[in-house]
Write a structure and sequence with these properties.
5-stranded mixed sheet, 5 helices
Length: about 170
């Protein structure tokens, strides 16, 4: 099917999109992307932000939907785990955070996810800019977390207050 569509058969390109929202005088990221650490064609987010005249040091808030690599690896440098956005508040679901930080989770995870949990446990507890939230509160001006269960234990989406109700 890929070849019929004019695509290579040996590689599936998966786009990773990070939204930047300006609201209430704040600049907010919706997830942080891969940081170029998931597949070789990803990792252009910081360069694209710069090209769009968005200063990464001026990001106020980062809303994290869940702790999979394509949503959080952009928070930390590949080799050092140094924060990429040290001035930003990182908002996460308390259920998601507690699940991944629990040392016992490593043994319950499939082998392919154990390294992810180890990295999260080595990095996130030392960061003072992570805010855990419960439920569906306002997490940025005019933006509310919305529970989106099923993908991960504390998976969240976000919704603007003034957006129309979903179907």
């Amino acid at each position: 099917a890929m070849v019929k569509a004019g695509l290579p058969a040996d590689f599936v390109s998966i786009p990773f999109t990070v939204a930047v929202v300006r609201t209430g005088g704040k600049t907010i990221l919706c997830d942080a992307g891969t940081g170029g650490q998931v597949q070789p064609t990803a990792g252009k987010f910081l360069a694209n932000m710069k090209a769009a005249s968005i200063d990464a040091t001026k990001i106020d808030t980062i809303l994290i939907s869940h702790f999979h690599p394509d949503h959080i690896f952009g928070l930390m440098e590949k080799e050092t785990n140094k924060p990429v956005f040290p001035n930003a508040e990182i908002v996460v679901s308390d259920a998601e955070y507690k699940f991944w930080i629990d040392p016992a989770v490593i043994e319950r995870l499939p082998e392919a996810r154990k390294g992810l949990a180890r990295r999260i446990q080595a990095v996130f507890p030392g960061w003072k800019n992570i805010r855990q939230v419960e439920g569906e509160p306002e997490v940025a001006p005019g933006i509310r977390f919305v529970s989106a269960p099923g993908h991960t234990p504390g998976h969240r989406a976000w919704r603007r207050f003034d957006a129309p109700e979903p179907f």
